[in-house]
Design goal:
With 155 residues, this protein is an alpha/beta fold. The protein is built from three helices and seven strands, in the order βααββββαββ. The radius of gyration is 22 Å and the shape is elongated.
């Protein structure tokens, strides 16, 4: 049994649920139709449509299993996080240079999108700031080298 937890916000749970619904209710039936049509064409060993449809089927079925497992193992990230220390679900303002603040929401890897200001608690920055408080300074080893951040504010 998988004991891995998938940390998600309510928005993240809804996105994964919507994707799962799209795959199971729309794409899977369309793919079944494509497969039936390809089978009708005869010789499956040289049937490019059949081969492509089988590859698509493998991808879709794999993604369905992945989504089901993520939703089954999901832990809802509460909006009621502590304002005393950084935790999953916290909105944190950090600064690498005085006067240049960056705002991030600490989320699980399944929802991470740094361009949208959502970083994983498993990322180098996430690991460095989790459990820290306002005013703390942390050093982060990133692929670009070591950076020092100060935690300015928790929201």
């Amino acid at each position: 049994m998988n004991t891995h937890k998938t940390y998600l916000t309510d928005v993240g749970i809804q996105k994964l649920t919507d994707e799962l619904t799209e795959l199971t209710e729309k794409q899977r039936p369309e793919l079944a139709k494509r497969l039936r049509e390809a089978i009708k064409m005869g010789d499956l060993s040289e049937n490019a449509d059949y081969i492509a449809a089988k590859e698509d089927q493998a991808f879709i079925e794999g993604r369905i299993l992945e989504l089901q497992e993520m939703l089954r193992s999901s832990v809802l990230i509460s909006d009621q996080t502590s304002k005393q220390e950084v935790a999953i679900g916290s909105t944190v303002i950090i600064s690498e240079e005085p006067g240049i603040d960056e705002q991030y929401i600490l989320v699980g890897p399944a929802e991470a999108d740094p361009t949208a200001g959502m970083i994983s608690h498993e990322s180098p920055i996430g690991q460095a700031i989790i459990g820290k408080s306002v005013g703390d300074t942390v050093q982060v080893d990133t692929p670009g080298g070591t950076s020092t951040f100060k935690i300015i504010r928790l929201e």
